[in-house]
Design brief:
By secondary structure, the chain is mainly alpha-helical. 56% of the residues lie in helices and 5% in strands. The protein is built from 10 helices and 3 strands, in the order H-H-H-H-E-E-E-H-H-H-H-H-H. The longest helix has 25 residues. It is globular and about 45 Å long.
Length: 271
């Protein structure tokens, strides 16, 4: 198991919500093209309004079908997760950071909301528009470290900020459902969410060096990584590739945050 942008277990709920949005359509035309994270071209299937509607509907379906109980808002685990998300969401609103990652957020509404579900699975998810679920199983891996928890939550939030679910629908419409191509695309999105997430961590005041250390612990939680399937057949990069990528990105994220703090990266209009 691994931290997923959206657990496979929730695919039917989100898929139904996507199909509903695409069926009613709201007159939305073919997927638009434009620059996405990192300057790459990014086709999207949903408008900002549809993305918000779909995300809220899918979130309610997932919570209603959860096997474990939804923890109360006063539970310390919920309070902790919501505090970390609040800091990360504040960082996500920093315009120079949005520019650094080249996020398309204008016109979008992110309903950053967190629920914690009593469940042993080592996972978390974030549906479109920023609605987050955390399973208590992942909290055993993060332990008491807020930096580790920020690693998980920033990665999930990155999927929403980058509109990855909407993009996957657009790609499936274009590719005709080629499974290997779809897996390749999902691995790319996972790596992209790692990149965005480690920058969110740094700008929110968390230590980005914890990200590769967290994934080393995840490797141990997987049994040392020996049971991983070949990467080409997986929707996620291998743990080794993830750790290398995060270790390379962490110094870049720290340098960007330092430049911002020193005023060397200013918001547009404040130069």
């Amino acid at each position: 198991m691994s931290v997923a942008g959206l657990s496979r277990r929730h695919a039917p709920a989100l898929g139904a919500a996507f199909l509903l949005a695409l069926a009613v359509g709201c007159g939305f035309g073919p997927p638009e093209r434009g620059e996405g994270p990192g300057g790459r071209q990014q086709p999207l299937a949903l408008s900002p309004e549809e993305e918000l509607t779909v995300g809220r509907k899918a979130y309610q379906e997932i919570l209603s079908q959860a096997r474990g109980r939804i923890l109360s808002k006063d539970d310390p685990r919920v309070v902790r997760c919501r505090g970390v998300v609040a800091r990360l969401a504040k960082a996500a609103a920093i315009e120079p950071l949005q520019r650094e990652i080249n996020l398309r957020v204008r016109g979008y509404h992110f309903d950053w909301r967190v629920n914690v579900i009593e469940d042993r699975q080592i996972n978390a998810f974030c549906v479109p528009a920023g609605l987050i679920g955390v399973y208590t199983g992942i909290l055993r891996v993060t332990g008491d470290s807020d930096d580790a928890l920020a690693t998980v939550l920033s990665h999930e939030m990155a999927h929403a900020l980058a509109h990855h679910a909407s993009e996957r629908v657009a790609q499936e419409q274009r590719s005709g459902g080629n499974p290997l191509r779809a897996l390749h695309y999902e691995r790319m999105q996972e790596s992209e969410a790692d990149h965005i997430g480690v920058f969110l961590m740094a700008f929110a005041g968390y230590n980005p060096d914890e990200a590769p250390r967290f994934w080393q612990r995840m490797t141990q939680a997987h049994g040392g990584g020996g049971g991983e399937m070949p990467e080409i057949f997986s929707s996620h990069p291998s743990d080794k590739r993830r750790i290398r990528g995060l270790a390379a990105r962490a110094p870049q994220a720290r340098a960007a945050k330092q430049a911002f703090d020193e005023g060397r990266i200013a918001p547009v209009g404040r130069r």
